[in-house]
Amino acid sequence: MLAACGTGRGAPVDPRRYEAFFLWPGVKAPDWLDEAGEVYVLAGEVRHRAGRGFVPLRATPRVSGPALWCVVRVERLDWEEGVYLAVLRTLALWEQAGNRLVGLQVDFDAATRGLGRYAEFLADLRRRLPRRWKLSITGLMDWSAGGDAAALAGLGATVDEIVVQTYQGRRTIPGYEVYLTALARLG
């Protein structure tokens, strides 16, 4: 994965210059990752097909170094009660294992026109999530250009952070700085 960080236009990215990382299931963490500030760890998925529930993708980690975010990749927002319970149980298990658990990150590609519904879902999730855990989401750059201001404000009032995806596939999107500048107006 790190080999793909070379852009062909200069030196490869030195990951040790950064503090936060995302870790996919099945990828062996490099030794230096223990020195990271935070690691976003993909724990499971809520897939498109209803009734599938929460699908775990890894065992409960036991990490003494960095703080952890439990990441759930989400393909649908119509969660049954069992999905909420499974996600909350996973968070509790991660914390009970001795990890410094920051909270939950929802990785969902919310369409810009669907931000109102997404904000409602997140507000409900936030009510269910114990206050000791933060709520993070991934965000798309085009929210800055076409996102409804009220829906975006709803997101901002609900989540603790938005990690904006500045890539498509394995490449950084050219000119991503313009989108980030536009997002800054949202506060």
TrEMBL record:
The record's listing under InterPro entries reads:
DUF3142 (IPR021488)
Highest taxon listed in the record's lineage:
Bacteria
Q: Name one Pfam family in it.
A: DUF3142
**Any idea what this protein is called?**
DUF3142 domain-containing protein
Q: Which organism is it from?
A: Novosphingobium silvae
